[in-house]
Specification:
There is one protein chain. With 630 residues, this protein is mainly α. It is built from 32 helices and 4 strands. The strands form 2 sheets. A two-stranded antiparallel sheet has the order 1-2. β3 and β4 form a beta hairpin. α12 runs antiparallel to α13.
Length: 630
């Protein structure tokens, strides 16, 4: 078997023992165990040809181990005993015997209470087993040998806290906090005890004290930010006070320039949460530089850039995501919204359509696409998109609202009213915040276009109750009454108030001129109507020119009246050519102008067309009147 070497183990009192370093597992633990023995006996010496001598048998025939006298130093003996128990504890732990492991761990702590790590580990194990008395015993023993240990004070505080001895726990935590390098254990313990007792001023004082410490770990300061947040919420403190403490802690963390990506991410997220966008952006950019493939971070960056109105920077981040992951639905969705806001509806629609192809269950994409089609004045595509959504999802307020707007654009006012009423019912069962003044304005306009004037009036007034300064509804309702020559006094009040709120609005000025016309004040009417036409000279309005013609006629100037009516007719015919669907109201207007110009046959044709689209009593009477004249 080869030559066997003999060894003589000499243990000297000068050896220094420190064994908590060997908390390892597997192969590392085996190495650690051997190293611990070597550390315990730096005095290893080899004697290749050791001579036989009296003593304890070595197990090798003819060879004994020399028995040396025990060390006389008591502290050294305690260290040896502590190390022996510690290693035995580790051995039992590896063999799956936690009870014996804890027994020897406790013996190690009692033998050598200066070994802080072993003491804390022992206390932790006892606390896990709810044996607070044993934990306190071990910690107090250790404290008697080391009054300056922050860890011993903090863990003793935890043990007292678990034992519901809050006065003693507070004293230990306060002592630890008074040291130069406390940890989150003592600060967290104090804030919890004080907050539970509604002594929030004390909790905040502990946090303020912590801010004066010179800690070099960014994670510590993020923990302080957490405690400021939790303490502030518990105290129902002013949000600015909470924010001030949180940001003070976060700034201390940032100054330390953390290198751990998870710490940087946590810090960036915290800044973002508290509205410190520039700081958050800076940290997110750092993360992207460390790892360009962090899709989630790029999404956060894009969101922040959008909040800061840095659309170009946001677009760069989203496009970078799509280069690596072309099917990233969130990036496509946000980018679609950006393109929509940049007035690029075709590109926006392409992104939303792509999302639906990738994932037909991505519901918001349908409604965004429907809104794009509405914006492009393509109500048929809007309804087609919404029909696709109905196949996948239950109707929602937004889908029925968009359907109502699409039907109104198609001059299908009965269907528009039906859809909008369904939207109202859906909102009342869960989204009442959707029922705004704008919603009721759209519903009122649909009723007005459907010639249901009394109902329209009720709905417009509902919009005004929600927003009394909503001058658009004031003008619409006032003009409706003036146009059908009813409730003129109410109309006058509404129109004049609308003009006060928005004095340069051409539509409101036209309503005012038309009001004066109904009141027989033709000179005043003409002044206002001409002012309205001047304001709209870049985009002339047929209704204004029709009103100007009617007013000239009342003032006896037939030539100017016909000129104005012809201008109105030209504008209406141009509008008719642009319409995708026939509009009953438009044909009625055309018929009215032809009738004023004395072209009765053309007027009748236009009114017939209007009646075919929407058979209402007012058109029937006009047609009946032309027959009687013949």
């Amino acid at each position: 078997m080869g030559r066997i070497k003999k060894y003589r183990l000499i243990l000297t009192e000068q050896n220094t023992l420190s064994y908590p370093l060997f908390m390892k597992s597997g192969l590392n633990t085996k190495v650690a165990f051997v190293l611990a023995l070597i550390w315990a006996g730096i005095g290893f010496k080899t004697a290749p040809e050791a001579k036989p001598r009296s003593g304890v048998s070595s197990g090798i025939i003819g060879q004994n181990l020399e028995v040396l006298p025990s060390p006389q130093d008591k502290e050294f003996r305690n260290k040896v005993e502590g190390l022996t128990h510690y290693l035995t504890s580790r051995s039992y732990e590896f063999r799956g015997n936690p009870n014996d492991s804890l027994k020897h761990l406790e013996a190690a702590a009692k033998a050598d209470p200066k070994q802080e790590y072993v003491v804390v580990l022992t206390a932790r194990r006892h606390l896990q087993k709810k044996k607070t008395d044993k934990a306190i015993e071990i910690l107090r023993l250790a404290q008697s040998t080391n009054q300056e240990s922050v860890a011993i004070h903090e863990w003793l505080g935890l043990a007292y806290q678990q034992a519901s001895q809050l006065e003693e726990a507070t004293a230990e935590f306060e002592t630890a906090l008074g040291k130069s390098q406390p940890t989150l254990i003592s600060i967290r313990g104090l804030t919890k005890i004080y907050s539970s007792a509604n002594r929030h001023d004390k909790a905040f004082k502990a946090l303020e004290t912590s801010l004066k410490k010179n800690k070099k770990q960014p994670e510590f300061w993020i923990g302080i930010a957490d405690l400021y947040r939790d303490t502030g919420l518990s105290a129902k403190a002013d949000i600015n006070k909470i924010k001030s403490g949180v940001l003070a802690a976060l700034d201390k963390a940032e100054v330390l320039k953390p290198e751990n990506p998870l710490t940087i991410l946590r810090l960036a997220d915290y800044y973002k949460l508290w509205g410190e966008n520039e700081k958050a952006i800076r940290l997110y950019v750092t993360l992207i530089e460390l790892n360009p493939s962090l899709t989630g971070v790029r999404e956060q960056l894009a969101e922040l850039f959008l909040q800061e109105e840095k659309t170009e920077e946001a677009t760069k981040q989203l496009e970078a995501i799509l280069r690596s992951r072309p099917t990233n639905e969130r990036a496509l969705f946000i980018l679609g919204g950006i393109k929509r806001d940049l007035d690029k509806p075709e590109e926006a629609a392409m992104h939303f359509e792509t999302i639906i192809k990738i994932n037909s269950k991505f519901e918001p994409a349908y409604y965004e696409l429907a809104s794009i089609h509405l914006f492009q004045n393509n109500p048929k595509k809007t309804l087609e998109t919404l029909e696709s959504a109905y196949e996948q999802f239950k109707p929602k307020f937004i889908s029925k609202f968009y359907a109502g707007l699409a039907h109104s654009t198609l001059h299908q006012f009965s269907k528009a009213i039906e859809s909008l009423l369904e939207a109202e019912e859906l909102a009342q069962s869960g989204e009442q915040n959707r029922l705004t003044h704008f919603f009721y304005f759209q519903l009122g306009a649909a009723y007005e276009r459907n010639r249901q004037y009394n109902t329209a009036s009720k709905i417009f007034n509902k919009a005004l109750n929600l927003f009394p300064e909503y001058h658009n509804a004031m003008n619409y309702l006032g003009y409706m009454w003036v146009d059908i020559d009813r409730n003129i006094d109410e109309a006058a009040e509404l129109i004049k108030k609308a003009n006060e709120l928005d004095p340069e609005n051409a539509a409101y000025i036209d309503s005012l001129g038309w009001l004066y016309f109904r009141q027989g004040k033709y000179d005043k009417a003409l002044i206002e109507l001409l002012r309205a036409s001047e304001l709209t000279k870049e985009e002339p309005d047929s209704t204004i020119f029709e009103h100007i013609g009617d007013t000239h006629q009342k003032l006896g100037d037939t030539k100017k009246a016909k000129a104005a009516w012809k201008k109105a007719l030209d504008l209406l015919i141009k509008q008719k050519k642009k319409e995708q669907e026939p509009d009953a109201y438009l044909f009625e207007q055309i018929g009215n102008i032809y009738n004023k110009l004395g072209q009765e046959a053309k007027a009748k044709d236009a009114w017939n067309r209007s009646y075919e689209i929407t058979p209402i009593e007012s058109i029937r009477k006009k047609l009946q009147h032309t027959k009687q004249e013949r």
